[in-house]
Inverse folding.
């Protein structure tokens, strides 16, 4: 996955939607920009597979030396997989936030949330304005 091919929430989560067994599955992570802003990650709290999320709902948090940031689901659906190795390998977020650093996969219950997501250019503009 390349950053240019992803969609982004204003809260810095990225989404890649693919089809698996006839259903839409969203892979969710956090952007390189957000990881840079947090700096020195020390802890990550992730949900269990099987939990149902609504678009915009908090599902976990990532903690750095200087701040704790909530993680929000950009889409609605059921968590079907969690990157359970990530909390013990937080360096993956710095090294490869769009491949190894994915956080969870959600079997989407519809398109709710997708229309609020930014494309790469709009997200880059948002980051430049806030940065």
């Amino acid at each position: 996955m390349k950053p240019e091919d992803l969609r982004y929430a204003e809260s810095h989560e990225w989404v890649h939607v693919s089809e698996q067994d006839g259903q839409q599955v969203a892979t969710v992570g956090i952007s390189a920009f957000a990881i840079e802003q947090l700096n020195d990650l020390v802890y990550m709290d992730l949900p269990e597979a099987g939990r149902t999320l609504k678009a915009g709902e908090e599902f976990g948090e990532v903690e750095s030396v200087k701040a704790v940031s909530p993680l929000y689901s950009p889409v609605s659906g059921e968590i079907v997989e969690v990157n359970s190795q990530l909390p013990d390998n937080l360096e993956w977020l710095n090294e490869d936030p769009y491949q190894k650093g994915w956080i969870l996969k959600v079997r989407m219950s519809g398109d709710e949330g997708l229309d609020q997501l930014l494309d790469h250019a709009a997200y880059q503009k948002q980051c430049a304005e806030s940065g």
Notes: Residues 12 and 122 are 12 Å apart (CA to CA). The first strand starts at residue 7 and ends at 8.
